[in-house]
Amino acid sequence: MAIIWELDFYSRPLLDDAGKKVWELVVCERAQTVQAELSSLFQYTQFCPSTEVNSLWLQAAIKTAIAQAPAPPDRIRFFRRQMNNMITRACNDLGLEAKPSRRTYTLNLLLQQRLQTVYPTMAGFQPGQANPIASVVSYQASPPLPLPDALRGDRWALVTLEAAAFDDMAAWTIDFRDVVPLSLLNLAPNTPVPGLLIFSSRALPLAGWLSGVELAFIKYAPGNPAQLVLETGADDRWTLATLSNTQVCQEAERFEAAKQAAQQVHFLAVQSDPNVEAFAGFWLLQEVNLS
């Protein structure tokens, strides 16, 4: 399985002796199982003076992280759109692929942990700047695009699984997968986790395409017409389904309510047929507010 690092390079709620913002590089390995613990994953942090914030400093710091890691990353994810040019340039100069992604679940948890246990112990801590994953750049959501014809499912269903069911996910037959480290969210074992199952005669090509677009989350979008929308990458949006009647809209509303009760955790799965036990793709997702 590919080694993916999640990376953030940004100012922290800290001021130096001159009253300038302190920046920090935080890198962590992506969790590959739902039972993953932060302490078992590679992490690297390095503070940076505001006067040295540039791609050369970042490149050198990433190089140091690679030297300390058990293995180099195959690619890097980052969520801050405003840092796109600097992060991409630093990574590309090291021969690394870097992609903007809202699928930085492990990193988000690590940043929240550092806000609670690390930054408050340091001189210059600014408690008013509370959200370490907030972005200062907002964007206007664009209308969702239709999925390519060849990738549309034959039919779909909204379903639920209890959180405990994912404990055995590593043993499931899945061609393409990615997870949220549920062990770090402390969901009760009987928490209903909602999901969308897509059935397609072209299940494997559909799953392969989905695996390459940095899945973020599924959201019910009421309107005329109402839709189930798939968010991917930094700000891409796709129409998974158009909801044509009241009953289906009510199902989608229950899907959103179940997401909220499960800390916004949900899943997307692709199968060739409802009677098979294997999945062409299965992704645990979480809607995280990055703005």
Features:
single chain; 291 residues; alpha/beta; 5-stranded mixed β-sheet; 5 helices; 21% helix
Written description of the protein model:
The protein has five helices and 14 strands. The protein has 291 residues and is of the alpha/beta class. Strand 1 and strand 2 form a beta hairpin. The chain has helices spanning 55-68, 84-93, 105-117, 203-211, 246-261; strands at residues 4-15, 21-29, 43-49, 75-78, 97-100, 145-146, 155-162, 174-178, 192-199, 215-221, 226-232, 236-243, 265-271, 279-286. The strands form three sheets. It has a five-stranded mixed β-sheet, with helices on both faces. Helix 1 (55-68) crosses helix 2 (84-93). The radius of gyration is 20 Å and the shape is globular.
